[in-house]
């Protein structure tokens, strides 16, 4: 309860983003209200998926698959509680709607992008994404400085390393393999944006595949490092009013670090923001209409969120984005799962920011970049 104090306080101080404020999740009624709101958004997003099925890309399928995993996890938790049955039934309905849609979507991908699908097929399968059973916290003193430029990290290289890890190359390779090149790429410090989220994704997928040897012996250590940085970046995104180009990576960070078990990413005011981004007409997430687009207060910030041309990104004419929608539903699914588990028996599922925002944050201007060079202390020697 007391741990909810900070975000609620921030909520009161912040300008309203949404016609209503979410109730605190510490009563059954509050939980039910928030769950109902999230479900409404997810139901609409699923209708969008259904309407645009042939156009949804692989990232889109993965996002909805992660949502499916969360829905299943929530239902397992709620099966026993008769009070929550109506919501549980609604989740079951959504889950049963999703499964055949995703199956059909994969059939479309097989036709449109067979090579890419084959390489990433495991991540699109039911049961691949496993939810955290233990929650952990960000250690804010692990935040390392961003190094520019980051053009040594390309989506092609990152994909190649993921394929190696998944063991889906055509040469009959085994999962959990790692070249020196990929080890260096996936453990170098200094990344931000998608370079960073893909580094975390690499270790997440290794966890899903059960890779534990060699470098993967240290998976948790790298996940701690990367998610500390991702938390810092998300707080900066919040500080600049979630300018549109930052929203996609903001939600991707919640999606990945949430599955990684970092409960700090499930902050009430972030949930409120994400819920407000759905396009009411289409049910998708994507480029906001011009009038509600907030300009970043500080152009310097954008450097942290440079959105690369995402090779497989699908931007529809109406501003809907397959990738944006995928990260949104996956993140929202995580909020459902965190909410259901709140509060954990040991009271560990905090929704407070691990580090109180500095006064500068409160002013909404640029928080100082952490200058201490932590690279020496944590960096692999290369
Ligand atoms: C956080 O990280 C710092 C720097 O590595 C370390 O000294 C400290 O013990 C860590 N704190 C926790 C709670 O793990
Ligand atoms: C907040 O902004 C005001 C006006 O720019 C400034 O005077 C004040 O020092 C800032 N507060 C802090 C604590 O940085």
From TrEMBL:
Organism superkingdom: Eukaryota
Matches recorded under InterPro entries: DUF4735
Keyword terms of this UniProt record: Signal
One Pfam family cited in the UniProt record for this chain: DUF4735
Gene Ontology CC entries for this record: cytosol; membrane
Annotated signal sequence range: 1-19
PANTHER family listed in its UniProt record: UPF0764 PROTEIN C16ORF89 (PTHR33539:SF1)
Protein name: UPF0764 protein C16orf89 homolog
Organism annotation: Hipposideros armiger (Great Himalayan leaf-nosed bat)
Primary gene name: CUNH16orf89
